[in-house]
Every structure is written in structure tokens, then in C-alpha cells.
Design goal:
Elements: E1 2-7, E2 14-19, E3 22-28, H1 30-33, H2 51-60, E4 70-73, H3 89-109, E5 118-120, H4 123-132, E6 139-145, E7 152-160, E8 163-171, H5 176-186, H6 195-202, H7 210-216, E9 217-219, E10 225-227, H8 247-275, E11 279-283, H9 290-299, E12 304-307, H10 315-327, H11 346-356, H12 366-375, E13 380-383, E14 397-401, H13 407-416, E15 425-429, H14 433-436, E16 437-438, E17 451-453, H15 455-458, E18 470-471, E19 474-476, H16 482-495, E20 499-504, H17 516-525, E21 530-533, E22 536-539, H18 540-543
Parallel strand pairs: 1-4, 4-5, 6-11, 11-12, 13-21, 15-19
Antiparallel strand pairs: 1-2, 2-3, 6-7, 7-8, 9-10, 13-14, 14-20, 15-20, 16-17, 17-18, 21-22
């Protein structure tokens, strides 16, 4: 059977396709539209249909809209309770009206689709399915935490043999995700977009407001929590967009981050007590907080934690499709990896280069050639295979660099046009990770946990060591990523370092590069030394020689 999942509410519009229980394709609309998170002027930023992503998913499988058995829309307007979401009433009514009419909008976007084929899947059920049904585990406890769904902001449940039992759900307006969004905006960042910047800034501060926040943000002993109204100005003056931060702001970020971690630990402990599972699966925007994830693993009751790599709202497209597949009696297969987006053959990539009239070479040993460029301290834009689903670059659409030079942190942040307090991440062979990085899981293929960098290695790979001595690693398996693994091996042979810097291939305010045109534009407009487009290598001096 064939199921398309669609997210087109709040932000991060996306589509995903599941065929006979297998995840065939998944992509975010931003990769096609080039509007990050699908953002448009309010209120329309919340209601962008993933028309291009959905059409591509179908084309990738050779399907037409009429071939689908059902379409999942990851929001059920029947569950909305007026006035509960804390939004301007006009926008709340408009959003609900849009969702009610979504089947007709989808039928217009995908000619041949019958609106009656569209099923509403509750937002947090879709999040839960994107974790519990996509994970490589037959059963698990599942924790969903985000800003808001139809009438709740959280779900705690138990997946057994593909069936979900909901054990708790926190009703709005209480929301850990919205609380984190509020402090994100207060610190001068873009809410529903820049929450990871607060997490990074937190490492520069001290949680001196923790006791006060414990009185305002607390669990209730029944699987839920409360978030009382908070006047952030009490803790630090509001930062205007583009303004500068000081110690007060870092301390506020640190305090909020620590309180979030504590509350998640308490919620996880309650959930473990109800399920006695050894594995916790997670989704929802809060699950992208890799610092909190690591503390949950270190101090919480679960032996293993699996976080779905597109844990934000984009992932509800996948969860919706998986939920429908299960509801129709299928047993969905585990997620094969995050590389579920578009890809191009070598011939197609060469055609792009010929059209662009860009000189290129085709090394016999690509990994060895690129390792030499990195060893010579050149920044490499790396475009390989299918693009990643979710916010992390995982060796398919990446900027790579030498980790042994501390200046490369500032250098890459300059290339990307982002704040200098932001860390950059390492990729490392799975077999070597344990000797360099401690704490966190032994395998971290989706870059969703932080690890302590062993003292003996901190001076050797300073570019990837955050101010608190941690790094958000991607562990690389040769079986899953043979080319990246070979690159790491070649780089170590040249430098003695089994680690390469890996950050997303994009610049500030732009989505991650997705197609060859995006890659060539990014290469042409930013100070990147080398572009690797599939098997082809383009060097700046040769490409832009006068």
C-alpha cells in the first residue's frame, strides 16, 4: 500500500512517502522553495503546502496521486479548542479553517488526488509514530515534546508491537517548547527557528536563575507539567534583533536550558515507571536539544535513547504516513537513514557543470584527493548522494574542514555568516569515537547528542571543542557511509587525526543546499575553497580564474 504524509501547519512543511511499509522518500519544502522553515510573512508562514516536496516524493517512486491509498495530514482541526493555543483569535480561526480545507487544497496541488483520501492524524500522534514506528526497536517508551499541537504540547506513550498507548498529554497553554521559543525571541533570535542558538549560548553562562525558574516550570507527578507566565525582563533585558549579548543573557540561557533538562528527566522517570521499557524514543522540536538528550541518557532511567533525525514538525509528515500504514495492517520497517531526499547521478551532475562552464576534475580516488585538500587546510563543500531529511548535515550536504586549527571555528562561522559563539561539529569513524569522545551514546549517526572531548584530544582538535569541552559528534559507519568513512581514513593517514569538521552546507538564513544549482550558487558566493559535486572536484582558483 502507498501512503503520503504531509505537514503543512505551524512551520517546516514537508512530505514523506511510505510504500509497503518501507520509507521511500522524505523531503522538506524549504529545500525546493529556498525559504527556510517554509517561512513567509505572518500569518501565511504557517500554511505552506509542500507541493514540490510531495510531487517529488511521488515522482521518486514512479507514482501518480491517484495511485495513493491515503494521505496523512498531520493535524486534526477537530481537536482544536478555541482560545487554548494562546494565539491571536483571528489567526487561530484562520489556521483551523485552513486545516479543514486542506484536503481540497491538496487535491488542487496534486491533480488526480481524491480529497476523500486525506485523513487527519493528530499532530502528536504523528510525532510519536515518527519515533516509535521508525526506530529499530519493536517496543519503546515514546516522549513527544514541542511547542504546540491542536490542544496539547506533549505526549507520553508506549509502543508495543506497533500499537501506541497514550499515557499522558499536557494540555495547552502549558508548553516547554513555547517557553523555549519565548526565551529565544527575548534573546534576539528568531523563534521557531533559532532555539539551538540558545542552547549554544547557554554554555557561556551560569544557571544562576535556576531556583527561581523551578518555581515557575515544574512537573505535576502525573506525567504532565506546568509553565507559569514568565517575565523574562526580570532576568535580562530584551535583545533587539541584531543586538549584542552579555553575561546576563548567557546566564538566562543557561538557567532555562538546565531547567528544561531537569523537567525532561522528571517526565522520563515517570514514563519509565509506567512502561519499564529499556528504550526511549523521542520526537518533537524539543528532542532536537542534543544537550538535554545527553543528560537524559546519562542520568535518566532508560538504557538507550533513539531520536528521530527530523524530530521537528517536518518529521510529522513521516509519522503521519507511518501511522496510516500501521492502521492499515502493515508493519513499517525501521528508518534506513536520514538520506531520504533528492539525489543525482554522476552524468546529471556533469551536465550541470558543463552548462555552468565550470572547470572540474574527476580524481581516481576521490576520498584521498579531498583528504589532501582538507589536510592543506582548505574548506570543502561536499555534495554527495541523497540529501538529508531534518536539520543536520550528515555527510551528504556538508562543509568540511580541518579540526586541528582553532581558527577554523571562526573561519567557518564567517563563511556561514553566523554568530561566533556557535560551535561546529566533528564527524568520526564509529570505531574510533570511544577513544576521543566520552559520555553520550557509543553510536550517534544523527548528531543528536553531545559528547565530552577527552582531555588528551582537546588540543589536537580545537576547532570542534565547544567552550564547555563538549562536541556534538556524528559517528560514521563504513557500512552505512563508505565514502565518508574512506575520507576519514585518508585524512587520518595524512594528519594523524581521525576527525573532520562537518557543518551544514548553507549560509545564514538559507536552507541547506539541496540540488546542484544550490551547490554552485553557494560555492560562487561564499569563501569556500573546493566544491566536491559527486565524483567531480571544482577548485576556486580554477573555477574563477580570470
Amino acid at each position: 500500500m502507498k501512503f503520503l504524509g504531509v505537514n503543512a501547519i505551524f512551520h517546516d512543511p514537508a512530505a514523506a512517502l511510505v510504500v509497503d511499509g518501507e520509507i521511500v522518500a522524505a523531503a522538506e519544502e524549504e529545500r525546493f522553495s529556498r525559504r527556510k522553515h517554509g517561512k513567509r510573512p505572518v500569518p501565511f508562514s504557517a500554511w505552506e503546502l509542500p507541493e514540490q516536496a510531495a510531487a517529488w516524493c511521488l515522482a521518486e517512486a514512479g507514482l501518480k496521486p491517484e495511485d495513493l491509498d491515503a494521505v496523512a495530514y498531520s493535524y486534526d482541526p477537530a481537536l482544536v479548542r478555541p482560545g487554548q493555543q494562546g494565539l491571536d483569535e483571528r489567526w487561530e480561526d484562520l489556521r483551523t479553517t485552513y486545516a479543514v480545507r486542506a484536503p481540497n487544497f491538496l487535491a488542487t496541488a496534486l491533480p488526480g488526488l481524491d480529497p476523500a483520501q486525506v485523513s487527519y492524524v493528530p499532530h502528536h500522534i504523528a510525532h510519536a509514530a515518527s519515533a516509535g514506528l521508525a526506530a529499530p526497536h519493536a517496543s519503546s517508551a515514546v516522549l513527544v515534546c514541542d511547542g504546540r499541537g491542536e490542544s496539547a504540547s506533549h505526549l507520553a506513550g508506549h509502543y508495543r508491537d506497533g500499537e501506541l498507548a497514550v499515557l499522558a498529554a499536557q494540555e495547552l497553554p502549558h508548553s516547554l517548547g513555547l517557553m523555549y521559543e519565548e526565551v529565544t525571541e527575548h534573546l534576539g533570535f528568531l523563534r521557531s527557528s533559532d532555539e539551538y542558538k540558545v542552547m549554544a549560548l547557554a554554555s557561556y553562562g551560569q544557571p544562576r536563575h535556576l531556583e527561581s525558574l523551578r518555581e515557575l516550570i515544574y512537573t505535576t507527578g502525573d506525567g504532565g507539567f506546568r509553565v507559569e507566565p514568565i517575565d523574562w525582563n526580570v532576568y535580562a533585558k530584551k535583545v533587539l534583533r541584531g543586538g549584542s549579548w552579555n553575561g546576563d543573557h548567557a546566564d538566562l540561557a543557561a538557567s532555562v536550558q538546565k531547567r528544561l533538562e531537569e523537567v525532561l528527566l522528571e517526565l522520563a522517570s515517570w514514563l519509565h515507571g509506567r512502561t519499564r521499557e529499556r528504550v526511549l524514543t523521542m520526537a518533537g522540536g524539543v528532542a532536537l536539544n542534543c544537550v538535554a538528550n545527553t543528560r537524559l541518557l546519562d542520568e535518566g532511567p532508560f538504557e538507550e535513547i533513539w531520536v528521530q533525525p527530523a524530530a521537528g514538525d517536518a518529521g510529522t509528515a513521516l509519522g503521519g504516513a507511518l501511522h496510516l500504514a500501521r492502521a492499515h495492517g502493515e508493519r513499517p520497517a525501521p528508518m534506513p537513514g536520514a538520506d531520504l531526499g533528492r539525489g543525482w547521478t554522476g552524468e546529471e551532475l556533469r551536465a550541470w557543470l558543463e552548462v555552468a562552464r565550470v572547470p572540474y576534475s574527476e580524481p581516481a580516488d576521490l576520498a584521498a584527493a579531498v583528504a589532501r585538500e582538507l589536510a592543506d587546510d582548505r574548506i570543502v563543500a561536499w555534495f554527495q548522494g541523497r540529501s538529508e531529511y531534518g536539520p543536520r548535515a550528515l555527510g551528504h550536504r556538508s562543509l568540511l574542514a580541518h579540526p586541528g586549527y582553532a581558527a577554523n571555528t571562526e573561519r567557518l562561522n564567517h563563511v556561514k555568516g553566523r554568530e561566533q559563539f556557535r560551535p561546529i561539529a566533528p564527524m568520526v569513524l564509529e570505531s574510533r569515537a570511544g577513544e576521543i569522545f566520552s559520555r553520550g551514546p557509543s553510536r550517534s549517526p544523527y548528531m543528536l547528542f553531545v559528547h565530552d572531548v577527552s582531555p588528551a584530544w582537546r588540543a589536537r582538535i580545537p576547532a570542534v571543542v565547544h567552550v564547555d569541552g563538549t562536541a556534538r559528534i556524528q559517528s560514521v559507519s563504513p557500512g552505512r557511509e563508505p565514502l565518508v568513512a574512506r575520507l576519514l581514513e585518508c585524512f587520518e593517514a595524512l594528519t594523524g587525526l581521525p576527525v573532520v569538521v562537518n557543518t551544514s552546507l548553507n549560509t545564514a538564513g538559507r536552507p541547506m543546499v539541496d540540488d546542484p544549482r544550490d551547490a554552485l550558487e553557494c560555492f560562487g558566493s561564499s569563501p569556500v575553497d573546493v566544491l566536491v559535486l559527486g565524483p567531480y572536484v571544482i577548485r576556486r582558483g580554477e573555477a574563477f580564474a580570470s
